[in-house]
Amino acid sequence: xxxxxxxxxxxxMIALTGCGVPAAKPPGSSETSNPxxxxxxxxxxxxxxxxxxxxxxxxxxDVVAPKFTEKTGIKVNFIAGLSGEILSKVELQKNSxxxxxxxxxxxxxxxxxxxxxxxxxxxxxxxxxxxxxxxYISVDKVGVPIFGYVIAPAYNTKSxxxxxxxxxxxxxxxxxxxxxxxxxFTDIANDWGFTILYNLAQANxxxxxxxxxxxxxxxxxxxxxxxxxxxxxxxxPAVQQGSADVxxxxxxxxxxxxxxxxxxxxxxxxxxxxxxxxxATIVKNAPHKKAAEEFVNxxxxxxxxxxxxxxxxxxxxxxxxxxxxxxxxIGIKENDPVxxxxxxxLSEIRATWTDRWAKxxxxxxxxxxxx
Length: 371
Description:
By secondary structure, this protein is of the alpha/beta class. The protein has 2 domains: 46-148 and 276-325, D-Maltodextrin-Binding Protein, domain 2 (3-Layer(aba) Sandwich); 149-275 and 332-364, Periplasmic binding protein-like II (D-Maltodextrin-Binding Protein, domain 2, 3-Layer(aba) Sandwich). The protein is 39% helix and 15% strand. Helix 6 (191-203) crosses helix 7 (212-223) and helix 7 (212-223) crosses helix 13. It is globular, with a radius of gyration of 27 Å.
């Protein structure tokens, strides 16, 4: 009789299992039948963002992401790298993306779009796009400006006063024998170096269609410089330690250096400076597109932009101002000449002038330093 009852019990359990009723878990089991938690967008609570290191990484990791996670439950993973490196990584993952949001300088946004590595961004999904300041470039609705900045000259005020050197007022003032060998400029492969070239062209009667005057001035610049740095990681210590008194760099880096106590002053030359932004793109076929849209929308919310501006960046939405503590270092007055660079044209001419720079400018490095 016991044998018959046991057989019926076993058959009953099999029938219940076949109907989809889960069997009881053994004591101490860590297995769970709950599905992965979903964000308010209905996706898994995790996205991966790739962007520049330094101030951008610190601002997202330490300030913005924790607030966003607190509000939405979506965890933000961050991968740090230079804009061009991130573009290469996204391209390598083209058939199986692992990154949801890629942040680039404007030229790389253009390149990413041309390579088919970006999703189209719509206000219906990212409503805060309506708040964007139109002084910043938004590349065909694929790149949303997040971290505003200018690329501008800066100089050590204490050294200039000690050596009785007049302040920098023009892009041409980057070239003076008084500070030969005490300069920190990047190579043209870096956006900061390319900015020097096209602004020298415009300051000397040239244009993006006629860069020759800029190249001739760049040759003089090279002659009074020991080296062209490859990136900011190499260049910043030279300015911090007083090896260089004159530089051209992003305003966010100037703010960081000046905030640490170095008497570094940013200049808006009479010819103007390009106002731009590191922009967020959503990677084509991003694994968590809706959650990524939610994060981009938060980045350009008033709360998001306030936190970002505290990190040394200009707000990219209307109605917000740079924090007062940063005004002495990177403040831009209303009458200061700033302009929106022609990214499409710069992208078109960059390869040609990078090649010319390498052949004609770089070989002249240091020619007048020891004279």
